[in-house]
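Subject: Interface between my chains keeps coming out wrong

I've been trying for a while to get a sensible model of this assembly. When I model each chain on its own everything looks fine, but I need the whole thing in one frame so I can look at the contacts. Pasting all components below, labels as-is. Any help appreciated, I'm running out of ideas.
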Amino acid sequence: MSTEHHDPTSSRIGAQSELGTLATLRRGLELSPELRRGLLVTVVLAVVATLGRVIIPFVVQQVTDNGILASGGPDIAFVARAIGGAAVVVALTSVAQYFVNVRLFTSAESGLATLRMTAFRHIHDLSVLTQSTERRGSLVSRVTSDVDTISMFVQFGGLMLLISTAQIMLATVLMLVYSPLLALVVYLCFVPLVFLIRRFQPMLGRAYGVVRERVGDLLGAVSESIVGAVTIRAYGVEERTAERIDKAIEEHRAAAIRAQVRSVMAFVSGQAFAGLTTAVVLVVGTVLATRGDLSLGQLLAFLFLVNLFTQPVLMATEILNEMQNAVAGWRRVIGVVDTQADVSDPGAEGVHQERGPITVDFEDVSYAYPDGPTVLEEVTLRLEPHTRVAVVGETGSGKTTLAKLLTRLMDPSGGRVLLDGVDLRDIAFASLRRRVVLVPQEGFLFDEDLAENIRFGRPEASDDDLALAVTELGLDAWVDGLPHGLATRVGQRGESLSAGERQLVAIARAYLADPDLLVLDEATSAVDPSTEVRVQRALEGLTRGRTSVAIAHRLSTAEAADLVVVVDRGRVVELGRHADLVGRGGVYSRMHASWSSQQGSDVVAP
Amino acid sequence: MSVVSAPVPRQPATRAVLRRGLRVIWGGIRVERRPFALAVVGSVLWAAATVGTAGAIGWLTDAVIEPAVGRRSVSAADLWAIFGLLALVLAVNVVGVILRRVYATVAGFNLQARYRRGVTRQYLRLPLAWHHRHPSGQLLSNAHADVEATWQVFNPLPMAIGVIFMLLIAGGMMILVDPFLAFIGLLVFPGLFAANLVFQRAMSPRITRAQELRAEVAQVAHESFEAALVVKSMGREDEEADRFRTRTLELRDSLVEVGRTRGTFEPVIEAIPTLGTLAVLGVGTWQVAQGDLDAAQVVQMAYLFSILAFPVRALGWVLAEIPRSVVGYDRVQHVLTARGGLEFGEGRARRDGGPAASRLDGVTYRHEGEEEPALHAVDLVVPAGSTTALVGPTGSGKSTLTNLALRLVDVEGGAVTLDGADVRDLGKGEIPAVATLVPQQTFLFDDTVRNNVTLGADASDESVWAALRVAQAEGFVRALPGGLDAMIGERGGMLSGGQRQRVALARAVWRRPRLLVLDDATSAVDPSVEQAILAGLREASDGMTVLVVAYRMATITLADQVVYLEHGRVLDRGTHAELVDRCRGYADLVHAYAREAAERAAVERSEEEAR
Ligand SMILES: Nc1ncnc2c1ncn2[C@@H]1O[C@H](COP(=O)(O)OP(=O)(O)O)[C@@H](O)[C@H]1O
Ligand SMILES: Nc1ncnc2c1ncn2[C@@H]1O[C@H](COP(=O)(O)OP(=O)(O)O)[C@@H](O)[C@H]1O
Ligand SMILES: [Mg+2]
Ligand SMILES: [Mg+2]
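Reply #2:
Try treating it as a single job with all components included. I did that and got this:
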C-alpha cells in the first residue's frame, strides 16, 4: 500500500498568518459563517435606524422654520403634529436599533464562538511538536483574548462601515445636486486623506500585530510563573521571575500605547482634513456667493451636507483603525487554524483495523527533530503479537522518540512504521488510538476526581469497569485509603497526589482503555519498587495476549520481557531475550551489571 | 466533566455599582494623575473647540460672509479671516483630541501594567496552597482579561469629562435664555440617571457571569493544552473539544445576554435627549404663543440641545463600561488582597560554606482541605555533613517532608530548624541561599541551558560546565547547537526526560548549597549515569549535607543514615544493614526487584524441569 505522504518536516505554529487585510477578512468570514447569517435583515433595520437619526434633526429644523418661526406667528397645530410624528420616529428608531444591536451581538458572538472552537480543535489536531513551538499560555491567548479583540469590530464595525459608505454616497449625490463645483472641492480635499489612510493602515496593522504577540508572551510568562511555583520558591528566584514577567508586561504596555498612538494619529489626520475641508468650502463658497453663483442659504445648506459627508468619513477612519486591531487578532487565530497538521488523520479514507493481536514493524525508520541531528537511525524491528517488549538504553538515546513514532505522535523522517502490515499514516486515528495507547513519561491528570481521570481512557466505562480495573492493578488498597476513594479530587495537574500516585492513575487510565498495544514510557519511574513490581505483574497478566512495549531504567522489566531492544545513540544495537543478551558482553550486559550491582548482594531469596 | 469555577466571591448586585465604579475610577485617576490631567485638558480643549466651531461659523456668517455677499465682492483679507479662524479652531480641536486620546490611552495602559505587576507579584508571593486552590487558567484570566476589564473605562473617560464640561456650558447658556424652559430640558438628566440605574442593576450580574465564564474558558483551554500529549495519545480530541464547546457556548450565551442588555440601554440613552429636545420645542412653542418668549430664544434652545445629543452618548459609553470595570476590579482585588503568604523573620542563615544541619521535631503537616495529616509527629535529624536517605512507599509523605525542610510550606505542629534556627525566624531568601531542593517534578524555564543552571545569576562558563559535569549533563549540552546558549523550549521540551533531570541537578549543584535535598531526582536517569552522578556528587559534596529521597539501592547505600517512612510516620531509622534486618517494610521495598528476579528464575527453572 503506498499513499502519498507529505513532507515529514514538522510545521511551526504561524505567529500570524501572512494574509493581507482583505484576505484576512474573507478568511475570517469563512471561518465564522454566522457573521453573515441574517445580515440582510440587520442591514435593513440599521438603515431604518440611521434614517430615523437623520430625520430627527430635519424635523427639528422644520418645527423651527415652519412652526415657531411661521410667518403668521407660531403654528401650534403644525408643531404638535410634527412633534408627535417625531416621537413616533424616535420610538421606531429605538426599536430598530434595539433589534440591530441584539442581532449583531448574537451573530458576532456565535461567529466568534465557532472560531474559538475551530481553533481549539485544530490546536489539538496539530502534532505534539508543532504544539510545542508555542508556549501553552500563548496558545490559550489564541482562543481567548485574540478572539475577544475581534469582537468589537464584528459587533459594530462591519455594519457601521457599510452604513458609513452608504451615507458617504448619499451625501456625495446631494452635494453634486447642490453644487458640483463645491463637491469637487470637497473631493479634492479628501484625496490626500485616502493616500494617508492607505499608508497608515499597514503600519497600524503591524503595530496591532505586535500587541497581540506581546499578549501571547505575557500570558506565556505568567503561566510559567504559576506552573513553576515550586521551583521558583525552592530557589528563591521570585525576583528574577518577576523581572521576566515585568519585561513582558512592559513590552505589552509599550506596544499597546504605540499602536494606540498610531491609531490616534490616523484618526486625527482624518479630522484635520474634515476641518480643512469645511474651511476651504467656506472660502470657495464665499467667493462663489459673491459672484452670485450661489445664494448664502445654499452655501449654508451645503455646509450642512459637508458635515453629512465628513461625519461618516471620520467614522470610517475610526472603524478602519479598529478593523486593523481585529485583523491582528484574526491573523493570530487564522495563523493557528491554517497551520498544517503534519501528523494528520487520514480520516474516512483511512484504514479501520479489526482489534486483536498486533504486529509492529519498523522499516528503516529514521528520525530527526526539526533543525536537529538524526536521533534515530535506520531502525528495523519487528514486534510479534503477544510479546512483552522492553526497550532499554541510556537517557537521550532515543527511546521516547521510538515510542512516539510507534504511537504516531510523530511521523518518521525516513522509513515507515507498520501495524499489521499497514503504514501507520494510513490508519484512521479512531482505529489507531483505540488499538495503541501510550503512557507518557509525565502523565497529566485533570482537575477532576480520580474516577473521571481514569475514565478518560474509556469514557463509556461503567463504575464497575472502573472498580475492576483498579482492583486488577492491585490499586484498590491505595484507593480505599483515600478519604473519598475514587471520588477524591486530584487537584490541578493532579498535584494533590504524590508523583508516584499520579503515575499509578495514568496507568490505570491506559489499562482501562484496553488497547491491543500498550506502550509504557518510564511510566512507573516515580513509584516505589514494591508497588512497581506489583503493578508490573498485574500488567503482565493482563497484557498477555497483546503486545506491550515498556521503556524502563529498572531492568527488572527487561528481565521479564520476551524481547529486549537495546537502543544506543539512536541505533538498535542489540535485540533478544534477557538471558541471551546478559552474557554477551555488549551494551546490555554492561547496563545490567551496573543495575544488579545496585540491588545489593544481601538479597534474601524467598 | 466540570471545572471548579472561580471561587471569587460575588458582590451582590446592589445599587452601589455606580458608586463603587466611580470609586474604582477615582482610585485610578489618583494613581495616574499626570496623564489623566493632560487627557482632561485635551478633552476640555476639544469640547471648547467643538462648541467653538458652530460659534465661529455663525460669527463668520454674520460678520464676514453676509456683508461680502451683500457687497458682491470679497477681499483676500476676508477670505484669510474665514480660513484662519476655522483653522485656528481646528488646531485647538486637533491638539485637544491628540492630548485626550493619547493620554487616556497612556493612563489606561499604565494602570493595566501596574495592576498586572501587582497581580503577578501576588502569584509569586502567595503560598503553594493558594495556588492549589486556583486553576492556572483562572489566574491567567485575572492577570489579563480582568485587569483589562477594570481599566478599559479609561478610554472613553476623558471624553465623558469633556462632555460634562460641554453640558455645563450648554446648561448655563440655557438657564440664561430661559430658566423655565431650561428646567424642562434639564429634566433629561434625572431621566438618564434613572435609566442608568436600571441598566447597572440589570448588567452587573450578567457581566459578572461573563467574566467568570471567560476565566473558565481560559481554564479549560489551558488545562487541555497542557494535557495535549495525553489527549492525543488516547485519541480524546473530540471529548476535549466537547468540553471546550460547552464552556464556549455558555460564554457566548452570556455575552449575548450582556449584548441584549446593552442593546436595550443604548437606544434609550440615545432617545432621551431627543425627546428632551422635542419637549423643549413643544413647551417653547406654547410659550411663544402665550407671548412669554420670543421665537429666536426657542430656536437657540433647540440648537443647544441638538449639539448635546452625540456627546451624551459618550457619557453613556462610560456608564455602560462601569459594571464591567467593577466586576473586573473585584476579581483582581480578590488576588491582590489574598493573605497568607509566608511570614519571614529577621534571622540570617550561616554562610560559612560548611555543611548545614537540618532537623524536624515532632512535625505534623496536613495538606489543605485534607482530614488526615500527611505527616504525623515526624522527628528527623540530618546532622551536618551527613547523607541521609529517605525511603518509603509511594505516597508516604517523603516529598511533603522535603518541602517542609526547605520551608516551602509551614508545619502545622512541631518545628523545622536549620542550623538550630527555626526556619520561620529566618529572613526572606535566606533558606534558598544555603539550601537547595531538586523537586521530584522537574521544572525548567523556557530559556537557555545556562540560565536554567544559574537562574540568571552571573557565572563563569567554567562554573556552569563544572556543575553540568557533576550532573553528567556536559556531554549532551556540548552536542546541543549553541551549547550553553541553546534554548531548551517550554519546560525543557526539547530535551529527553533524563536530560531535563540532569539540567535540574546541575542547577542545584552549581549553587554549592550547604544543604542539598534531592527528591527522587534521578528517576529518569539510567543506572550507570546515576552511578556517575552519585560519584560526582560525592566528590562535590564536601561541605554539603545531603537529604535524598530514593528507591534505588545505589543511592541508599551511600547514606550514613536511612530513615524509613510509612503513612506519614517514621517507622525506623539506622543504617541500611540495620533496617534490612529489623524493618520488614523496608526490606520488602528495597529488595522488591531482587526478589522478583529470584522468583522469576525459580519459576523458569521449575518450568524447565517440568519439561
Ligand atoms: N522536542 C525535541 N526537540 C529537539 N530535540 C529533541 C526533542 N526531544 C528529544 N530531543 C533529543 O532527541 C534525543 C533523544 O531523546 P529521547 O528519545 O527523548 O531520549 P530517551 O531515550 O531518553 O527517551 C535527545 O538527544 C534529545 O535531546
Ligand atoms: N497538595 C496536596 N493536597 C492534598 N494531599 C496531598 C497533596 N500533596 C500530596 N498529598 C497527599 O499526601 C500524601 C503524601 O504525598 P507525598 O509527600 O507527595 O508522597 P511521596 O512519599 O510519594 O513523596 C499522599 O497521600 C498524597 O496523596
Ligand atoms: Mg525518555
Ligand atoms: Mg514524592
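Reply #3:
Confirming on my end. Chain A is about 60% helix and 10% strand.
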